[in-house]
Amino acid sequence: MGCGCFSMPLENQHDELKNDGFSDWPFIEFFLSDLTKATKNFSANEIISENREESSNVVYKGLLSEILDFVAIKRFKNSEWSDHEEFAEDAKAVGELKHKRLVNLIGYCCDEDERLLVAEFMPNDNLATRLFNQSINKFLAFSVLNPNLLAFTEKNQTMEWSMRLRVGYCIAEALEYCNSAGFASYNNLSAYSVLFDKDGDPCLSSFGLIKAINYDRSQRTRGIVNPKSVTYRFGTILVNLLTGKQVPPSHAPEMINGKCVTELMDPNLKGKFSAEEAFVVYKLASQCLQCENRKSLITKELVATLKALQTKTQVSRLLL
Fold first, then answer.
1. What is the pTM of this model?
2. How many domains is the chain built from?
């Protein structure tokens, strides 16, 4: 039996909801039927995630109503949350987090064996796709939503250095906020977790936060400590930004140890970067990759260092 409560008379709320986004929405418990319809019965054509680290859990693009924006719907294996009340409690806790660099979690659904999360839809893909030049045909599909994407794909497939600095800063800022709100863990933080909004600005997916809650709970009951901290994973993202390469977290230290910055830099940048700024990012990456204690955190000092780099370079957004 379903436990959703989304099916409200939307036609009476047209003026209030149209084009307002989801920043002021109350957290919603959805009917499974609403999400099934929104994703065209969970059609493979609506799948928008390609995270190889989480192949068992799929993210779909969904449209709840013609008067509302698209949403992202993550469908979990039910075995991860056998208790639907526990799942609902975790989802609501993450739904309370609000930050300009964190994707809003707007609701959930638990219906018998189904466990789903609903978040804002980020139309400009993820860092893995952008930085590693994956799935170019996917860009063309999304160009229907934003014609600027087509121009980006045809003219410049390499992410500029200024944008890479912005990604590092914005994600560090989001993680620091989450930590200050009591969410020190993030499950499988990676380039796939960094999404780009309609303006081309980087945001952190909120899906990894709820999985982290569940992961921490299960590890505590078994007395196991997670060897890869958020800080370590963030260091891997910094390595991604420097090299332009998809580096497994376990190989990130050997990727940079004993190498100078110029050896590491993405050749696709063709020298269009500041060596001084690159060295700062390299140093931060090295420090982060030394942190394997699960309690190590993204600190205010790290955020401040990356913020300072924003003042030295004129940051151009992804699509402008």
1. 0.82
2. 2
Residue 183: partners with Cβ closer than 8 Å, 6 or more residues away: 94, 97, 209, 212, 213
Residue 282 belongs to some domain of the structure: yes
Cα 246 from Cα 239, distance rounded (Å): 9
Are 93 and 75 within one domain?
yes
**What are the C-alpha distances in Å from 54 to residues 189, 246, 284?**
11, 16, 27
- Phi, psi of 156, deg, nearest 5: -155, 105
Positions in the chain short of pLDDT 70: 1-25, 50-56, 66-68, 78-79, 134-156, 218-228, 291-296, 311-320
Using CA atoms, how far apart are residues 202 and 168, in angstroms rounded to an integer? 9
As a whole number of angstroms, the distance between CA 242 and CA 312 comes to 17
Between CA 73 and CA 80, with CA 75 as vertex, the angle to 5 degrees is 140
Co-location of 198 and 137 in the same domain: yes
First-to-last C-alpha distance (Å) of the chain? 48
| 4 falls within a domain | no
Pairwise CA distance, residues 170 & 272, whole Å: 21
Q: Are residues 83 and 112 in the same domain?
A: yes
Range of the domain at 211: 127-310
User: Kind of pairing, strands 28-29 and 58-63?
Assistant: unpaired
Do residue 237 and residue 305 come from a single domain? yes
